[in-house]
Amino acid sequence: MGIDPALLERRLDELYVIGAEPDGGAYRPLYGPAWATAVERVERWLKDAGLRTRRDAVGNLWGRAEGTDGGKSIVTGSHIDTVRHGGRLDGALGIVAGLTAVESLLKAKGKPRRTLEVVAICEEEGSRFATNFWGSRAITGTIDSADPEIAAAMRERGLDPARIATAARDDIDTFVELHIEQGAVLESSGTPLAVVSAIVGTAQLEVTVSGQPDHAGTTPMDLRRDALAGAAAMLHAIESIAKSLGKPAVATVGKLAVEPDQINVVPGMVVFTIDLRHSDLGGRRALEERIRSLCTTISQERRLGIAIRTLQEKPPVAMHPDVRALLARAAKECGVQATEMVSGAGHDAQILAARCKVGMLFVPSIGGRSHCPEEATSPKHLELGTRVLTKSLEMLAY
Amino acid sequence: MGIDPALLERRLDELYVIGAEPDGGAYRPLYGPAWATAVERVERWLKDAGLRTRRDAVGNLWGRAEGTDGGKSIVTGSHIDTVRHGGRLDGALGIVAGLTAVESLLKAKGKPRRTLEVVAICEEEGSRFATNFWGSRAITGTIDSADPEIAAAMRERGLDPARIATAARDDIDTFVELHIEQGAVLESSGTPLAVVSAIVGTAQLEVTVSGQPDHAGTTPMDLRRDALAGAAAMLHAIESIAKSLGKPAVATVGKLAVEPDQINVVPGMVVFTIDLRHSDLGGRRALEERIRSLCTTISQERRLGIAIRTLQEKPPVAMHPDVRALLARAAKECGVQATEMVSGAGHDAQILAARCKVGMLFVPSIGGRSHCPEEATSPKHLELGTRVLTKSLEMLAY
User: FRET pair for A201, CA 20 to 30 Å: which of A96, B37, B85, B240?
Assistant: First the structure.
C-alpha cells in the first residue's frame, strides 16, 4: 500500500507556515487566527480526499468515510494546536499522516468495511489557556463547563460553550495516532519505529527546604544550616534514585529558587520542583516514596526544615494490548521490526483510552529535539511511519 | 579601670534610633541625612568628653586628646554607616566603646603620654554607593578620585571631592577596634572575648554550567546533560572540600539561577557563585584550586560545559603580632582568657594595616546574627569588651 511521501512533506510544510513566528517556529494557540486558518486548510484537504467533514462543539474537526458494515468508528489523527515556537511535526504529523493514509486507502481500496475517521483535535498542548487535553476531554464527555475566558474565545469562533457536552462520542472503537517520539531513545538505539506500550504517569512535587541565612564569612561550615547545600544533596539523591530504579523511571528538578540569593549570604531557603514519571503506577509511587524519604532524611541530618507538597498527579495509561499487537503486525508487514517503548510525554490517547481502544506509533526525533524550531524527523522515517499507519488502518477497517 | 555600662548602653540606644526604619533596624547610608545626624551626635559626645574634633575631607570624624610626648597617635573607633535594616552594634559599638574608653581614661588618669584619638569612619559597608572601605581607604591615601555620584553627595554635605588626598594620615601608630563577631563561634564555644589574629582573604567566583535543555518526560536519565544535576554535584563537592580543609576555610554558594527554570524541562544552564575565604593566602588558594579542579572533573564526567570566572579577590590580612599580644595581656589584666580567632568578615583594620599596626577585639553575637534588627550582644559582654579596650588603650597611651 503506497503513499505519496512528497505530498506528505508538502502538507507538513503548508501547515508549518500557518502561525509562523518571526523568530522561528510556529504558534497556533487554541481558537486563535492561525489555529482557525490551519483547521480550514485541513478541512479542505479532508473534503478533497472525499471525506464528509464536520466540526463538533469545541472545534474538533472530523472527516468521515462511512463503512459498509456500520458500527463503531476507527479513528486516526492528532492535535492541531502548538506550543510557542513549536516545531513542524508535533501534532501536525498525526493529522497529515492520518489523512494521507485514509486518502490512499479510499483511492486504492474504495469504501471501507468499518467507518474510518480522521480527526484534528482542537487542543492538547495547553497552548493558550490554563487547561490541556481540551479536545480529547470533550470527546470523552468529561468537561463540565468552560471557564469565562475560554467561553469568550469559543464564541468568537462561533462555538457555543453551552453545547460542549454534545462533542462526546461513544461510538469510537479504536483510536490510532502517529507521533514523533520527542526524545532521543529511538535515534540513539538506531530504531526506525516504535509501538507505544504505555504513557507515563506523572507526579509533580514542590519541595521547600528551610535553613538559616547567615554571613558567608563569619559562619564556620559546622555551624551552618545551609538550605542550598541541603537541596544539592537532595538533588543528587533524586537523580541517583531515578537511575537506580532504571527505565522508564525519570525524575527532573527543573525549577529552583534561592533565598536571599546573595553572593555573601548562606542560603536560608530553597524551593524546587520534582517531576516524576513512570509507566507503571507502582513504579511511580515507589520512585516518589524513596525520594520523599531520602529528602526527609537529608533534611534531618542537616537540621533543615522540609515541606513537600503535590502540585499535580496523573496516573499512567496502558495502550490497548490488541492495538499494540495489531500495530506490531502492521509494522512487520511493512518490513520493519518495531520496538516497544513507553511515552514520557502526554498524548490525547491517554484521555481517549477511557472510552475506546487506543494505540500509538512513534518515529524518531532527530537529536531528541521537540517543542522548538529544530524539531525534525528524517523523510524516510516520516514515510515509514505513515506506511505502517496506513497498513494498520487497512487491517482495522477493511 | 571602670567604665559606666549604663552610659554605654544609652549611647548605643541613642545612635540606633538615628535612621530607624519603620520595618525594623536602622539605615545610615554614607552622606545621607541619618548619617549626618549620627556624625553630629558623636561629635557632641567627643567634645563633651574633652576631645578636640575635626572632620577630614571625606567626612571621617576625629576626636583628639594630645599626648605629652607627641609622636604618632593611638587610634580607636569604627564605622558609622550601616547596611539596610542594620543592627544596633555593627560599627556603632566600636565608636561608642572607643569614646567611652578614652573619656574614662582622661577622667581617671588625665592627659595621656601618647596622643589618643577616637575616629568615626564615614563608610565601610558599601551602604550606598558601589564602593566600600571609603573612609579607611581615604586615611591610607589610596583613593584616586570620587566617581560623579559620590562627588555630588560629598558636595551636598559641604565636602570637597578635590581634597580627598588631604584625608591621608601617616602619623597613626596603632589602630585598635572593638567589634561584634557577627558569627556564632564565640557563643557556641562559651567564650566571652576574642583577639582577632587575621581577617580572611576572599575570592568570589562565578560558575556557568551548560548542558542541554530537554523534555523531562521523553529524555531517559542516561541521555541527559542536566546542568542542574551537574551543579548539585559541584555544590556537594564544594561543601566537602571546605569541610575537609578545616577551619577557617569556608565556601558558600549563595546565588544560583536555572535556565529555563521550567518544571517539565531538564535544565540547560545553571549559573552560581562561590564565596571562598581563608585567613591564609596559601589556604585560600588551595581551597580555590581544589574546587576549580573538582568542578571541572564533574563537568567532564557529565558532558557539561563549564566556565569559571573570578569576580573579586582580596588577600587575607594578619593583625599585628605586637597588638595581638597587647590585647591578650589587657584581657588577662581584666580577668579574662581571650581566645584567638580569624575574622570571616571584612573590617577597616584590613585597609589600615597598610599604614599602621592594627588589632581587633570581638565580643559574641547572640545566635551569630548580624546585619539585621536581631543583632545583639549581652550587656555583660559589651561591658567586658569595653573594659578590655580601655585597658589596651591605657597600656598603649599612658
Answer: A96
